[in-house]
Write a structure and sequence with these properties.
Elements (H helix, E strand, L loop, with lengths): L1 H31 L6 H4 L2 E4 L15 H6 L1 H6 L4 E4 L3 E2 L11 E5 L6 H13 L3 E6 L9 H8 L11 E3 L19 E4 L4 E4 L14 H17 L3 E4 L22 H5 L5 H11 L7 E4 L6 H8 L25 H14 L7 E2 L9 H5 L7 H14 L3 E5 L20 H12 L4 H11 L36 H5 L5 H14 L1 H5 L1 E5 L6 E8 L2 E8 L5 E4 L7 E5 L13 E4 L4 E5 L1
Helix pairs in contact: 13-17
The protein binds 1-deoxynojirimycin (NOJ).
């Protein structure tokens, strides 16, 4: 009997342990689910390229006062986070992605007082601010580099990667921006090479040095103490390097991300950054790039690892090419990413940024007949997918590629260097020109089109880069009072996104998977179900959807939308038609 009782007791203990363990486990899992509410999941991010937004001091370059003068416009878009590209002191080799003083404002953009007013103005309107942290590299004009370069024994020497020339030439490293594609620059001063994955004026910082890391965390705290609400880590997946600089296999540069990204200590550095900075503030964190695999992407953003909040992956935006792209491929990529993050982690959803040509020119149709409707359709996609949507400034108007024909109109440093490179190697210049006309990031950097005046209301002097001539018809002023404009459609979209939790947290289900022209999916949570139909083609197309209930149109990019009643299975969509139904 006694033995039996003991057995029973043991069993009870065992069951309790199992219960407690699995109970805690499931509670913990629940806490990590992607449905867990966070402000940065509910955000709609509006990315501002400050150089091209609005110039107020007549130097042809946008400035902080310019952004301040447009705060009401920004608010009217219904966005609640602004991500602004780098505004720190910089000699502007790479438009601010080469920072010479991380605690100061670039002269072209204004002063720290302007920054403080901007932040106050945004916060006063309920909008948060995310800033770039560019710390894979600094400018060669940063004091750290000047010191580092000055002698081998300087205390800042180890802030950068140096290879003493008496060791021979270092193993080749591909540079994304260098005219010779060589990421090692020989410096006579100390008879050594320094590493620069980007331009020669962007030497890579040595993250293996704890002193450098501490400096960076202090800089981040400086901005967080000022009250900013988030950080976007530029090129950070490249920060950790194997500093023995092993030889990479022949042809590695064709897949350099595989060799450059996710270096040996990257996760340790992110954990440290999280401990030192992120965990101390209510800030969002996102890094450019998401490694080489879902595993990498998850490891960057899984909440229980305490690294970053959301992944920013490029597989989707990389699909576009001048010969067009397949919608099946597009759907496959976005669906695959969604399912990989369905229960854990969080994604950014975007089709453009300052490094891409214009969204409508790459993924839609920028001809006069379809520009407006296809821009609206693409914005509908961004605002209805699971993940935090990022809208790039100007896309709310349907701004298009400028498609410059003459080299002299281009401003982008890597493009100018590559042109020179092609000339040096006797490359096909005509092919190169065709390529940049479609792909060059200057296409996404032409001045914001405020009105139809000579410089699109961007500046009253000569703009740093040419204004797109189509500003005469495509501009904010013209769209402001047109209830059917791209701009007003964008506002309706953000309103829906901000008011329907299913569009933020809801489960995504792809429908009519093999449809070549229509992207159809539902978003569903807490008793709400939305059906989204997007025709990605310039012809009528049919969606094959079995409706078990009458669907109510919430928004569509044509003045009327086809009814979708119970029992109906085929819905015909007009060119680039986009409809959001409530089921
Ligand atoms: C990525 C940034 O988005 C891009 O604009 C920049 O040129 C490189 N990183 C180098 O900082």
């Amino acid at each position: 009997m006694v033995g039996n009782q003991k057995m029973k007791n043991r069993l009870v203990i065992l069951i309790t342990v199992i219960f407690v363990f699995t109970g805690t486990f499931s509670l913990k899992t629940f806490a990590q689910q992607s449905t867990e509410k966070k402000w940065w999941k509910e955000a709609v991010v509006y990315q501002i390229y400050p150089r091209s937004f609005k110039d107020t001091d007549g130097d042809g370059v946008g400035d902080l006062k310019g952004i301040i003068s447009k705060l009401d416009y920004i608010k009217s878009l219904g966005v609640n986070v602004v991500w602004i590209n780098p505004i720190y002191s910089s000699p502007n080799d790479d438009n601010g992605y080469d920072i010479s003083d991380y605690r100061n404002i670039m002269k072209d953009f204004g002063t720290m007082e302007d920054f403080d007013s901007l932040l106050k103005g945004l916060h006063g309107r309920g909008i948060k601010l995310v800033m770039d942290v560019v710390v894979n590299h600094s400018s060669d004009e940063h004091d750290w580099f000047k010191q580092s370069r000055s002698s081998r024994s300087n205390p800042y020497r180890n802030y950068y990667h140096w290879w003493n020339a008496e060791r021979g030439k270092p193993a080749p490293r591909y540079s994304l921006f260098d005219v010779n594609h060589d990421a090692w620059k020989y410096d006579t001063l100390t008879n050594a090479y320094y590493l620069h994955y980007f331009s020669r004026k962007q030497p890579d910082l040595n993250w293996e040095n704890p002193a450098l890391r501490q400096e960076v965390y202090n800089i981040m705290k400086f901005w967080a103490d000022k009250g900013i609400d988030g950080f976007r880590l530029d090129a950070f997946q490249f920060a950790s390097k194997d500093i023995s600089f092993p030889v990479f296999p022949e042809g590695y540069e064709k897949n350099f991300i595989k060799y450059y990204a996710m270096g040996p200590y990257l996760h340790d550095y992110l954990k440290e950054m999280n401990r030192e900075v992120f965990s101390k503030y209510d800030v969002m964190s996102v890094a450019e790039g998401a490694g080489n695999s879902f595993e990498d992407a998850h490891n960057l953003v899984d909440p229980d690892r305490n690294e970053l909040n959301m992944a920013y992956a490029f597989e989707g935006v990389d699909i576009a090419n001048p010969d067009g792209y397949s919608l099946l491929h597009f759907k496959e990529v976005f669906s695959r990413w969604d399912s990989a993050f369905a229960s854990k982690g969080w994604l950014s959803i975007f089709l453009a940024n300052h490094d891409q040509a214009r969204m409508v020119s790459r993924f839609g149709n920028d001809t006069p007949a379809f520009r407006d409707v296809s821009s609206k359709m693409l914005s509908t996609f961004i605002m209805t997918m699971r993940g935090t949507p990022y809208a790039y400034n100007g896309d709310e108007l349907g701004m298009t590629n400028a498609g410059f024909d003459k080299m002299e109109d281009y401003r982008d440093m890597p493009t100018l260097n590559e042109y020179q490179h092609q000339k040096n190697i006797g490359g096909d210049i005509q092919k190169f020109m065709q390529h940049i006309k479609f792909e060059c990031r200057d296409n996404g950097r032409t001045p914001f089109q405020w009105d139809n005046t000579i410089n699109a209301g961007f500046t009253n002097s000569t703009p740093w880069i040419k204004v797109n001539p189509n500003h005469e018809t495509i501009n904010a002023a013209a769209q402001e009072n047109d209830p059917f404009s791209c701009l007003n459609y964008f506002r309706s979209l953000t309103k829906l996104r901000n008011s329907i939790p299913a569009l933020v947290y809801g489960k995504y289900t792809l429908l009519d998977k093999s449809n070549l022209n229509v992207y159809a999916y539902t978003r569903e949570s807490e008793g709400q179900k939305m059906l989204i139909l997007l025709n990605f083609s310039s012809s009528n197309a049919q969606a094959d959807i079995q409706l078990t209930t009458n669907a109510k149109v919430l928004l569509s990019n044509y003045k009327d939308a086809p009814l979708a009643n119970k029992g109906k299975s085929i819905i015909t969509l007009r060119p680039y038609e986009a409809i959001i139904y409530r089921l």
